[in-house]
Amino acid sequence: MRTARGVISIVIGVAPLLGTLTGCTPSRYLNSAAFIEHDIRASRDDIETVMFKASILVPARDILTLDPLRRALRPGEAWNIDGQGVPDSSFYTNRGLEELTPERVAIGPCTMPPPQPPYQIKKVKIGGGGNLGFIGTDTLGRTFLVKLDHPDFPELGSTASIVGSRILWALGYNVPPIFLVTVEGTGDERFDGRRATAALFLDDVRGHFHFDWFRHRRELRGLRLASAWINDTDRIGSNTLVTVRDGRATYYQIDFNSCLGSWQGRPKDPWRGHRHAWDLLPLPPNPPPPIRSAALGRLAADFDPLRWHSQAPNNAFNHITPADAAWIIAKIRQLDRSHIEAIIAEAKLSNPDDARKLVEVLIERREAFLSLAEDTYGTVPHGMTNARYRPTCVE
Question: I need a labelling partner for 122 at 20 to 30 A (CA). Which of 132, 156, 279, 385 fits?
């Protein structure tokens, strides 16, 4: 009896602390308003803190508050539903079929002139795996984050960035303009002549956001399946940005060089996409998918969208319901082979076989979603919360 009372006391004492650290009670305003214009939340946590909160504190809080059990018994619908979908918002823009031509999708957010060399380097950066890059300005005075491809995999990271960002843009998410460039005019032999991506620096940045804050927004729940399609295993809070202009916030998804078969510009480890970084199980497939080429990395065509995992737990992903899934699957269905071919052509792969392989892999992964819609979600009307619900939707 004393032991039981002690456990209860610990739970009662720890739960408020975890709630304070993670934001236990979700904000109704932040999870239901279309455009966020007050009570704007942004974080300056470093990546280690983001990972710790997402992997340890948030799951611990949810276990103490019995949230996984509640979701399994009665999944709650998103709070920002507008009819069968979501309205345009600080997070999302509905793109009509008339806008989604292959030519327009290939451009994505890059409607401005591309970077104009020579570049003036302001800061040299070394990213994951020792990959080089820099922050620099072009002749028009615009600032870009330039990420070079790894010398052993000279098209891998840039292809992932171009393709991943264009697909998420086409699905309606906010992404910054990311251009494919050949670096010129820096006067630094480490950079000049190298293939890279140049991402426009956004103005008025407040920080990034934690997905847990917005776990009741349909567009962020649905992002789970969009990320699974493009194998965007690094879709975590540190790869977001919050900007504020004229009192209104815009929430961006950034950094896509860990999409497809790439992990920070190198081929993905076999376990990525199959478990979280700090998990011991489940084990990756045996044998693992092969590295397709230096430009494509490790990307399986045959996969289960419901069992795909991101680098760290994502609590918005965890709250996905059949209606959320049906909504994003309908968006994915709008992008057909012509769109995918146009996007991959924008990556300018030097080997035509690599381009063809990547088209076919993305088509096959897309078919997995369409099968999912028919087999699992096809009978779920928008607005129902638990019809034919499968617990594997929850990480």
Answer: 156
What 3-state DSSP class applies to 65?
A: coil
In a domain, residue 87? The reply is yes
Same domain, 236 and 186: no
Per-residue pLDDT reduced to its tens digit, 248-268: 999 999 999 999 999 999 999
Range of 66-75, 195-204, 288-297 with top mean pLDDT: 195-204
For the chain, how long is the longest CA-to-CA vector?
74
- CATH code of the domain containing 124: 3.30.200
Other C-beta atoms lying within 10 Å of the C-beta of residue 34? 14
Closest CA to 259 of 352, 143, 343, 136: 343
- One-character DSSP codes across 139-184: TTS-EEEEEEPBTTBTTHHHHHHHHHHHHHHHHTB----EEEEE--
- Is residue 4 pLDDT above 90, yes or no? no
Global pTM? 0.89
Domain that holds residue 268: 26-107+206-393
Q: Do both 183 and 210 map to the same domain?
A: no
Q: Which two tokens stand for residue 66?
A: 């019995």
d(CA 74, CA 87): 25
Cα 58 → chain centroid = 19
Residue 388 vs residue 314, higher pLDDT: 314
Q: How far is CA 92 from CA 36, 99, 150, in A?
A: 12, 15, 32
Element holding 384 (H helix, E strand)? none
**CA atoms in the 13 A half-sphere facing the CB of 178:** 30
Q: Which residue has the tokens 């103005």?
A: 203
